[in-house]
Predict the 3D structure of the following.
Amino acid sequence: MTLERLAELSGVSARALSDMERGRSRGPQHGTVAALADALSLEGDVRERFVGLARDGRLRGHRERPGSPCELPCSVTDFTGRTAERVWLSRLVYEESAPGTGVVGLITGTAGLGKTALAVRAAHAVRPSFPDGVLFLDLCGMSRQPLSAGDALRSLLRALGVAERQIPDGVPGRASLYRSLLRDRRALVVLDNATSEEQVRALMPGGGASRVLITTRRLLAGLEGVRRLALGPLSLPESAQLLSGILGGGAVSDRQPALTRLAELCGGLPLALRIIGNRLLSRPGWDADELAARLANEGCRLDQFTAGDLKIAHAFGMSYAQLSDSSRRMFRRLAGLPGQDFDADLAAVAAGVSVEDAWAALDDLVDLGLLHDGAAGRFRFHDLVRLFARDRLHREEPLAEREALSARVTSWLRRSVARHGRPGRPAAGPVAPSDAEAAAAPGDAARRAPRTSPAPALLPSEPPGDPGGGRGRRPTRPCQVPPVLLRAVPHGPSSSPRLDSRAPGQTAWPVPPAQERPWQPSGTSCSCTVASWTDRAGRGSTTT
């Protein structure tokens, strides 16, 4: 009987039969063995011996591997929350795919959100649904030398039972063998910490019952046909629950108000919550209220997120290291802006570049999860990421550059207010950079270009929705000044900013009612506005 005839009778592909014949697949799965036995009309003792030899081949393959090189890590025992995300991942397992296309899930999000923990937890939960194994491979995407596609395929092929001498030399050959093995099996492959589309394209399945789950800090917008899950921070109740779970039972209830405050200061980042929980757990004599008071001080908050080799600044620093020089400059200087959010025009003024160059840098920061982009083309930091950016600003920018940043942003905001008038009045046109701003940014003026954008509209007159805030689309409003800034900035070149007399010692201008703050997401507060910021700028500080 020819190989082609056997493939026709059994329903097993000729490629799979060829792999078995050549020794590349020495342990075919039970369904494949049964189909071959039926095609060969094997019965009785002969059939039992045939099936037994195949089973021995599978077991021998596992014994010959000195521990799988792609073994799934253990899951944390105190995993908390992510109910909707786990439901999404469970559906991914059983979702049908079109012929010739594999099912791939992509989990994206900034550092510290628990992408790996979620993927590992889900993989353990669905493991019974994948009788041919669950593989895990760290692609080292944030390291200086990420794992190449060729090396990743070598590790995966070895984990799938292919002997080293039988692994093809080039990436195309390895990828073809990898896809053929996954097509005839039901396996789950978790690819953690991916860095680029090029790295993972060769690792995606070509069809069949196998699944691939990828985690990455980048958006990997170039990947086609993948199911995307954008991971966000934990809610405050989930954060408090995770912190309580890390600390265990005992006197947690007695410290619940302090733990809730600690959870709030962690900003919903599981990594930050784990660091704080581990610090309290390893130091039973520590007072949670005292630690919360220390975290409340923004000047030293980032230093508190350290527990042994766990450091929140290290996690952010790995993303920061991936940026180009211009994007790093943008990232640092955005930390010197007042308010909770900003648009591309103000970012361009801060970085001393053209608006188009500012958009490119902002896109890089969003791609790595260091910025969040929202409706109407506005951007914002996560609180802890902002503190990291501010730390980079003071470490890497000299005092003269920080003072120049303060001067040109203050000048631009004042002229923006004068240009727009009171809140709700239609804008008269874009605010061009002044000669003073260019003079206040030595070395930056050459990076700026004239801006010719359509006349902007104030935020209160914008309809709800996202008219162009997404990647690849540019809003037609290059200049947006939130009403709170319009109120805070003095109207006149001779005016000097002052603190609100109604709140002695307050370092921020009062925030208007929520209905007057359409630019600000719910649940946030504007802790610093132009008045207090420009007051400090005169003292040479950009700390917000």
